[in-house]
Amino acid sequence: MDDHERRPGETGIGSLDWLRRSAGRLSVRERLRLSLRAALPTTRAMLTARIGREPAGAITLADLPTPDSRAVREALQAVEQHASDGVLQHSLRCYAWASSLGRRDRLAFDPELLLVSCLLHDLGMTPRFNGHAPGCACFAGQGALAALQMARAWGPESGWHEARCIALADAIALHMNGHVPPSEGIEAHLLQQSTAFDVIGARWRHLPAAFRAEVLARHPDRGFGAEFTGFLQREAKQRPQSRAALMLLLGVPLLVRLRPRAPADAG
């Protein structure tokens, strides 16, 4: 087993195992732990988004690994079929941010696993998959369980052995934690970093301005910030013990409105 793969049965707030035990409902103690755990990294990332030095090196979309496999094709098809265009473009941007941040941070990641994680991470926002797992009070958990089912169908013959399937589901389940260290899975870490980059502008200046503009021109925002904020509000009302409700309480909608963006974002 590779070092970056999580072992089935590992626990922790937001993990697949935690979802199965808690149904995605945070206890009061877990709310406090999650808030404190995310506070310092998020503050640091938001500060560097505005005052950090722009990197000097050049990078383009053509420099990023673009795996082509059954898993990638079917994951993309699922998002195109069931998600809004805003969610689709957000998911595609997330892979660009995730893989380029991984390259910047010199992290060895599995490109296929990372791409599939980025494509499927917001399946739980779609009408088709939000509610497909009865009893799961967490949209990220809904998406994780759907992705797990898909990955198991691809099977070991396509490279999707059980540990890799769990790694995919864990990455998706964990991405709403606010902070995911590399020790919880490199792909999980990069997925969370990329979603924070895209949604609230965390670490914005850690990638070159020309690259950010290229990504936003290729995959425009399409109003995803407002779409995500509205979804959080509905999710919090329906599932008040969820991580979405906690993110709403911690002021994520304000961070979404204040996020930096390039001119190409107007698309």
Short structural summary:
This protein is mainly α and 267 residues long. It contains twelve helices and no strands.
Description:
This protein has twelve helices and no strands. Residues 1-10 and 263-267 have low confidence and may be disordered. The longest helix has 24 residues, at 28-51. With 267 residues, it is an all-alpha fold. It has one domain (16-52, 65-266).
Regions with little confidence, pLDDT below 50 for 5+ residues: 1-10, 263-267
Compute the separation of the termini in Å: 43 Å
Estimated helix fraction: 55-70%
Q: Which radius of gyration do the C-alpha atoms yield?
A: 17 Å
Determine the oligomeric state from the structure: single chain
| Shape, principal axes of CA atoms | globular
- Overall number of strands: 0
Helix and strand composition category: mainly alpha
Give the amount of beta strand, in percent: under 5%
Please, how many domains?
Answer: 1
Order of helices and strands: HHHHHHHHHHHH
Q: What is the helix tally?
A: 12
Largest sheet entry: none
Average pLDDT, rounded to a whole number, is: 90
